[in-house]
């Protein structure tokens, strides 16, 4: 690079510029004078001071999110903490990236609540965790006047909810020794769940060994947590061994023990085997839950098997298990597509009755097919039924003739 520059420099030095010959004239040369630039005329107007740019006020979050934040404040109050409602509001606010409104709601409870109320502070840390705001949860823990295993478990759970799995392990190893308390069964269960969710099943199984060596007996939550991870990672040999350990310790399995196994079998195209496991579960007096039925309904719906899909949906209703939005949303388009309008109307009405809000277009398809089949009255009845729900109001209409 430097040699190239030197060559160019030498080239420019050796090059002589040939000046054009001067033009001769008989006239005497004019005297040359250097003209100085004319001074600028003074202006009567004084220079204008720089104008300050007007900053617009920060934009307010949309009204629907502010309302959610107010509902979160109400649901997270110490007097009537509603954990499921609070989690729902936090999930929706976090999905919309409205973290400032989550913080506003929690700080409101910090101000009106008792700083020594460990239970409340633990729940507020969980809210921060579910909102993906672990640093805020850590601040809450640091500000607590006394650190205990209960408050530690709240922080540990917040790291789990925020998916800070490395932090979960770090806290477990460092904080108990730092603040002088012993971990308990809940602490170990949170650690095991963290390892399972991060895909570290060897470490998760190691928690079970560590618990027993430290004199902490596992419970059904421990075993069910490990079963979820083992079936998810298709570690069938280890899962069967864990079932044997449960039996040796006289732990009767629950529906949460069976659901991971059913899920694995259905997802791996062994739905007949899954039915056998379901029947075995019911014969042992273990009642199926909504997830059990959802797994079978989804399994048959994915195969396009309308009759079995309807049969399992009907079993759900017979066992007095309430359907949820995802079940209705899965079954209704299938029966509508297959032309079973009577069953489609039944599902549509149940979705409104149970307030399982599905996409407007799904119900509109039912209305359109009813009109096409000359079932105008049934279409009008369905529209009338949805008028009580603001989500559908003025959206569901009879198709134009």
TrEMBL record:
The lineage of its organism: Eukaryota, Viridiplantae, Streptophyta, Embryophyta, Tracheophyta. PPR repeats lie at residues 117-151, 184-218, 219-253, 254-288. GO terms for biological process: chloroplast-nucleus signaling pathway; mitochondria-nucleus signaling pathway. Residues 32-57 have a biased composition (Low complexity). Residues 1-27 have a biased composition (Polar residues). Keywords: Repeat. Gene3D superfamilies: Tetratricopeptide repeat domain. Signal peptide: none annotated. GO terms for cellular component: chloroplast. This is Pentatricopeptide repeat-containing protein. It comes from the Eukaryota. It comes from Heracleum sosnowskyi. Residues 1-63 are annotated as: Disordered. Belongs to the PPR family. P subfamily.
């Amino acid at each position: 690079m430097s040699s190239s520059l030197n060559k160019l420099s030498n080239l420019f030095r050796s090059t002589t510029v040939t000046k054009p010959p001067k033009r001769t004239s008989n006239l005497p040369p004019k005297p040359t004078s250097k003209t100085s630039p004319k001074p600028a005329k003074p202006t009567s107007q004084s220079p204008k001071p720089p104008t300050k740019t007007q900053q617009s006020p920060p934009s307010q979050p949309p009204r629907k999110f502010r309302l959610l934040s107010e509902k979160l404040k109400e649901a997270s109050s110490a007097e009537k903490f509603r954990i499921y409602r609070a989690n729902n509001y936090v999930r929706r606010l976090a999905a919309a990236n409205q973290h400032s409104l989550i913080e506003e709601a929690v700080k409101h409870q910090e101000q009106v609540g008792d700083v020594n109320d460990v239970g409340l502070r633990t729940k507020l840390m969980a809210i921060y965790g579910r909102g993906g705001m672990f640093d805020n949860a850590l601040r809450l823990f640091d500000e607590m006047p006394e650190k205990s295993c209960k408050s530690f478990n709240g922080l540990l759970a917040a790291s789990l909810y925020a998916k800070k799995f490395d932090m979960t392990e770090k806290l477990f190893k460092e904080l108990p020794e730092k603040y002088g308390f012993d971990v308990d069964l809940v602490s170990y269960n949170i650690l095991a769940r963290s390892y399972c969710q991060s895909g570290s099943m060897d470490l998760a199984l190691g928690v079970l060994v560590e618990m027993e060596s430290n004199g902490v007996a596992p419970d059904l939550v421990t075993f069910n947590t490990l079963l979820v991870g083992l079936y998810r990672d298709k570690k069938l040999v280890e899962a069967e061994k864990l079932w044997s350990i449960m039996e040796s310790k006289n732990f009767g399995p629950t529906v949460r023990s069976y659901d991971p196994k059913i899920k694995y079998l259905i997802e791996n195209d062994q739905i007949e085997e899954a039915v056998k496991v379901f029947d075995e579960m019911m014969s042992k007096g273990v009642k199926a839950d909504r997830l059990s039925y959802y797994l079978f309904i989804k399994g048959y719906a994915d195969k396009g098997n309308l009759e079995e899909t309807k049969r399992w949906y009907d079993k759900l209703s017979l066992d007095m298990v309430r359907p949820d939005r995802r079940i209705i949303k899965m079954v209704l388009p299938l029966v509508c597509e297959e032309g079973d309008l009577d069953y489609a109307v039944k599902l549509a009405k149940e979705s409104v009755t149970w307030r399982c809000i599905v996409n407007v277009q799904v119900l509109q398809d039912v209305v359109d097919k009813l009109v096409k089949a000359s079932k105008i009255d049934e279409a009008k009845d369905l529209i009338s039924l949805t008028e009580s729900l603001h989500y559908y109001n003025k959206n569901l209409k009879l198709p134009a003739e």
